[in-house]
Structure formats: C-alpha cells, structure tokens
Amino acid sequence: MKKILSFLTALAIVVTLAAAALPAAYAEEAESTGKSTEAEYVRFIGDGFDPYASFEFSDKGQNDYIDPDTVKWAALRHRTAARYNEDNVEYIAQFYVSPPAEPFIPAHYIYSGEWETLIVDMTSVAALYGRESIWDSSHYINPENIRLDPLEPDRDAENFDDSTGRGKVIEGDYIDIAWIAFFEKEEDAKAYTGTENTPFCILDAESLSAPFSVHSLKAEFFSDKPVDPDVTEAPVEISGPVALLALNYEDDVNDMLFAGGKNIIQEVYFGEKCYVVDVPAGGDPNVELCFGTLAAGGDIDEISADECKVMQMGVRVNPDDGGVVGNIYWQTDLNPGYSETQNFEYKYAKTTDVQVVTLDFTKIKRWEGAVSNLRFDPFVSTNNDTEVELYYVAFFTNVESAQAFGEKFLAEGLPATPAPTEKPTAAPTEVPTEVPATNAPTEAPVATDAPATDAPVATDQGNSGDKDNTDNTPKKGLPTGAIIGIVIGAVAVAAVISGVIISRSKKK
C-alpha cells in the first residue's frame, strides 16, 4: 500500500512539473515556427476608401534608398486580422513604384492570425492586367520612398468587380506589420529573421509608424520592449509658438502671404477676423503660402524646420462641400521644389465649427533646413463651391505645445495682438478674444502622416495610374511689406494664456 501511495505521489509530482513546463515548451515551439510576438510593430487600420501610405526607408538598413534594378525580393513580417471586405474579396497588400503607377506588385498574406513572414517577388504584377513589371529605375524615379497599400481587395479574385471594387475596405479592418525588408536575392529574403544586418533597405516599425503621406489609413505603433526603470523621460516643456502669423487682421504682410501661385482658387480676401480662401468646385485646389518670400524680403524672420517641428492652423471648413482631406506641400533650402516626397496629408474633423489642424513633422526626414514657401491644398477636390476660413498659422517645437495653444484658441480666440504701426486702419483696434463660432468648436485629431489624397496625385483617389504633380513656382521679387506678427522663441504657458507678445520688424 505504501509503495502504491509513493508511486502515485511521484506520478503527481511528474505531472505537475510537466504541466508547469508546457507554457515554456509551447513558447519554444511557437518561436521555432515563426509565431512569436514581435517586440515592435505597427497596426494599419483602414479609415475609409483606398487606404495607403508612402514611407522613407529606415537608416538601419544598408541603404536609405531602394534600387529596383538590384532589389528583386522582399520579406514582409505580418499578423493578419480581418480577411475579407464587404464583397467577400480577400485582402492583399500592394506595392507601388514612386510615383505610383499601374500595375502594382501584389503581396498575398498568410492568413493564420499568427506572426508570419511572407516572401514577395518584387518583379511580379497583378495577373488582372497582363502587363510586364515596371519595377525598374526608368519608372521608379523617387528611390528614397515606396508606397504600400496594406489593405486592398485582391483584384485577381474570381468574384472581384473591377468597375466598383477597387479600394473597397471595411472601415476599422486592420493588419499588423513588424517590418518589410528588401533584398537582392530570394535566399537572403527567406533567411531573414528581423535581426540580421543584411537587407539592402528596410522599413522597420519606427519608419512604418511615420509615413510622410497617408490616405484613409491610421498607423498605430506598439512596443513590448521592457522599460528600463532607471531611465526616466524628461518632462515635455510646454511653450508658446516659435512663429505665429495671426490672420485676424489685414495688413500688407498677411496679404502677401497669399500672393503666390494658385490653382482653381481665384481669390483670397480678408473676412471677419480671418482670411477667406474662395474654393470653386473642381480638382486639386491650392494656393502657395509665401513664407520664404516674406523671409527673403525681411518682412518676417526665417522659420527653421529643425526647430519648428510642428505646424498648426486654425480653420473652418465645410466637409460636406470640400471633404475632410487636405495637404501641405513644402520646400526648404535643403530640399527645394515641391514633390510627393514633401507632402503632408491631414484630415479635418467632420464639423463646420472652427477647429485646429496640427501637423507633426517630427519624424519626417525632409522637413529640415529653412522653410521656404508652402503649398496649401485645402482639399483634394471639391464637389461644390465652398470657402475655407484661416485664423492663424503657427509653428511649435513639440506637439504638446501646439495642443495647448490650440485648446486655448478654441476656448478664447487668439491672444490680443498689437495693431500695425504703419497701417493703423488695416487692423482692428482691439482683437476679440472669442472664436467666431456659433457652436462648440471641435479640435481635429493630430495628423502624424501624414499624416491623404492619392499619395502622389492630389486629384485622384483611386489607383488609376500616374498622377499630375502640379509644381507651383514661388513668386519672386514680391514687394516688401511693413509689418509681421510673429512670436520669436518659446514662451511660457502663462504667456500663452495671458496673451502672446507679437514682435514686429519694420523695414527702413
């Protein structure tokens, strides 16, 4: 009897130890089969029709550009969630050359719900088109970036309707991607695990979380890396705008801000405590904001992109007439000229109240140097004639400072600004502190990809092919104005609350 009890006791101990070892054993098996949890990844969430984004390559690869004549293979680390759209067509991913043009390069996900590595032949094309690949340097003229459509209905599916099905994604469907690495050889792509320093170029989680142009897509960054308890982040310093152009009064400088080239837009005029951009119905409306021209003429101080990482606008739009998507194109002394690699797409809140739009350039490589003229595309296109009211344009060192300023503006209006000294009749004697809105104002979400029209073409929201890239040349030799309302340097939050001091430089 004692022997039986001893045997049962020993058996129980063995079973207990084996049970305790099961999680570790399963974890080891999961690791060996490639189904481990990634330490860092980005969740791409569909936020409307035809979601896509364009990216610059990480500096962690061997190159910060891609050479399509050399690079023929990619490895895509992903975890699937949603599988079919409302038409029961399976989702795939699409790569595009830059500027985007058909045919695209398809990537068919592995639908296991676990982390998988997909090997992609970059010379392949969708069978639907029956064309040869255009993955070569003669077509790929912007090798420093690439466009990815992470959720797209498979156009080669039998039940796909090419006339209506392109870009149809259920809002809220998502895919997780940890990295996309690009290689010269297939065997190198298959051998890559995410740690070797072998890719020709790579989109890691950090670069995937900071697209420079986004359309109908949200990018959420996740990290499971352990936090060092001995390392504490310094508190964010909240300060006022480094530069503020208040548009709640009219003077020569404010008028000259809108004196650049225009497309579709015919008139910009001073209204009630704001400037009004008159936008006729049509595609690709834009107006050039002449910051660089004003700085060159000495009317405003130069704006440094390295210091001014965040841009904010106080606006009022009618989203039913104009839509909810706008763009800012920029150029600097280090990156002259407008291009799709220098395009920040943002979204308005769906309201007709006054709102703030915040653009975070923190992770944008080409936002560097002295800011030259910007191109303001208030909408991708407009269904009806509409107007956009601009109350101010400001630049900040960080998002937190911009948000604090924006909240104050929505609650109380712009801080009191001194009247111009040379044209006293051009500005009100006292600037009201209330925002001219009848309803409770709404704050738009911070744009981080960029921050969304068709990445390279503001007039086309589908995947119909090459885009026209209107390049509005900055006006030269504009007459110099007398005054500029601009805040130089960071000021304390209390200063923002009580009123920002506007310094003015007077030309002699």
Helix content: 10-25%
Average of the residue pLDDT scores: 79
Largest sheet properties? 6 strands, antiparallel
**CATH topology grouping of the largest domain:** Jelly Rolls
Query: What fraction of residues sit in β-strands?
Result: 25-35%
Which spans of ≥5 residues are poorly predicted at pLDDT below 50?
11-35, 421-440, 450-508
Number of domains: 2
Give the radius of gyration: 27 Å
Assigned CATH class of the largest domain: Mainly Beta
| Count of individual helical segments | 8
How far apart the termini lie comes to 111 Å
Which structural class do you get from the secondary structure elements? alpha+beta
How many beta-strand elements? Answer: 24
Please state the second-level CATH architecture of the largest domain.
Answer: Sandwich
Instruction: Please tell me what the overall shape is.
Output: globular
What does this structure look like?
Helices cover 15% and strands 27% of the residues. By secondary structure, it is α+β, with helices and mostly antiparallel strands. It folds into 2 domains: 40-223, Jelly Rolls (Sandwich); 243-498, Jelly Rolls. The strands form 5 sheets. Strands 1, 3, 6, 8, 9 and 11 form a 6-stranded antiparallel β-sheet that branches. Strands 12, 14, 15, 18, 21 and 24 form a 6-stranded antiparallel β-sheet that branches. A hairpin with a 4-residue loop joins β14 and β15 (275-279). The termini are far apart. The model is unreliable at 11-35, 421-440 and 450-508 (pLDDT under 50).
